[in-house]
Write a sequence for this structure.
């Protein structure tokens, strides 16, 4: 007996769970398209530099969580831990600066070697959007509105809270780094080893620490709002005013500060209490310096990503698939297969009963939740007919084989309309 199991932190998506995932992805793609976002598909792995340069070499993702390997050519490659850096790389390598503004939607698997937890695996899935080339607060409002509409479309609008904050412009962050460093330096000896390193290189990353001791120290740190320049404060006021105008409720969370180097101005998260401590279901922000940091032209951008697993957990089971029609051959199996193919070409889901006596094949049809069974016996075949059994009430009738497809289509269309 085989003892093979999936790698820790990975998970087989069986059909029922896969339907829930596909519903989230399809809904996200549909809502994004309504806002004018086209889909981009980037490679699952990139040169390691793509992520190391953008996420920062002191981030947990780079130092602890990336799946990095050397290929046969000696190149260092990394399975993508997030989507934004790959999209930015695609923007540069495809020379898309002349196509701005760009609205891009993505979906697919991401990989992080972290402790598996509820709704977060080592191979997990995300949907996300990036809006490139628009520097005004209107872009922030539109991208957040898209996120809110997606959550509404999934039936989650009443279960989530939009939290947002401003990270300010470069001058704001420089002033805040100074104030934050002065505060954290008083507690240097009490910080975790990782946070002591971050304090030297990027103190904002201390605010992302998961260490409980660090969290207690950070709780009393000065808020970034006190360091915002008038221009940055005005930008944030325009964002919140735009959300008010669209009727999108929010709360300002002064502790919501992204540690990654490329973020600026608006940072936001949609959170829920329905998933325990891991409450973020969608998060994003503005990253005006990212593409320039990667060697491309300075290009403003804002986007977000959402975990498909967490959204699927919140939305619950997907609607059941269409009930099939069971084709039950009691004579020539090839003739039955030909009937099943005619039904499928007409858009009707058809399942073949491959083996067993009539009782066993009908039991399988019931197990499949089939709506009707088409029984092809030798006597019916000689008359050019089939027996059509209604599996809900067990009534049956003989139907001419030549008219079976149109007869079944009319029945099923009538039930859907009803």
């Amino acid at each position: 007996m085989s003892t093979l199991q999936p790698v820790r932190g990975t998970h087989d998506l069986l059909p029922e769970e896969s339907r829930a995932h596909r519903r989230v992805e399809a809904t996200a793609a549909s809502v994004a398209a309504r806002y004018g976002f086209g889909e981009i598909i980037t490679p699952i792995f990139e040169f390691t530099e793509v992520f190391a340069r953008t996420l920062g070499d002191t981030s947990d993702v780079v130092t602890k969580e990336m799946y990095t390997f050397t290929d046969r050519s000696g190149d260092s490659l990394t399975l993508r831990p997030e989507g934004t850096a790959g999209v930015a790389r695609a923007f540069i390598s495809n020379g898309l600066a002349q196509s701005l503004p760009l609205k891009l939607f993505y979906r697919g698997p991401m990989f992080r070697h972290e402790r598996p937890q509820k709704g977060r695996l080592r191979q997990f899935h995300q949907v996300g959007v990036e809006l490139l080339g628009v520097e005004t607060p209107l872009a922030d409002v539109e991208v957040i509105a898209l996120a809110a509409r997606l959550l509404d479309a999934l039936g989650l609008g009443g279960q989530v809270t939009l939290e947002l904050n401003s990270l300010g412009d470069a001058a704001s962050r420089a002033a805040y780094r100074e104030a934050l460093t002065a505060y954290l330096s008083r507690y240097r000896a009490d910080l975790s080893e990782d946070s002591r390193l971050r304090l030297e290189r990027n103190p904002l990353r201390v605010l992302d620490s998961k260490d409980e001791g660090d969290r207690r120290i950070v709780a009393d740190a000065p808020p970034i709002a006190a360091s915002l320049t008038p221009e940055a404060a005005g930008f944030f006021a325009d964002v919140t005013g735009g959300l008010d105008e669209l009727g999108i409720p929010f709360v300002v969370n002064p502790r919501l500060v992204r540690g990654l180097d490329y973020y600026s101005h608006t940072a936001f998260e949609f959170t829920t209490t329905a998933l325990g401590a891991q409450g973020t279901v969608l998060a994003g922000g503005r990253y005006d310096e990212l593409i320039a940091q990667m060697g491309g032209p300075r290009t403003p951008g804002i986007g977000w990503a959402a975990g498909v697993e967490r959204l699927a957990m919140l939305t619950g089971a997907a609607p059941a698939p269409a009930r099939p029609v069971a084709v039950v051959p009691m004579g020539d199996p090839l003739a039955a297969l030909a009937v099943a193919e005619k039904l499928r070409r007409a858009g009707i889901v058809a399942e073949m009963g491959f083996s067993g006596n009539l009782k066993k094949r009908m039991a399988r049809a019931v197990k499949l939740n089939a709506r009707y069974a088409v029984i092809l016996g030798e006597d019916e075949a000689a008359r050019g007919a089939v027996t059509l059994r209604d599996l809900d009430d067990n009534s049956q009738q003989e139907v001419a084989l030549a008219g079976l497809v149109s007869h079944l289509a009319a029945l099923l269309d009538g039930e859907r309309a009803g």
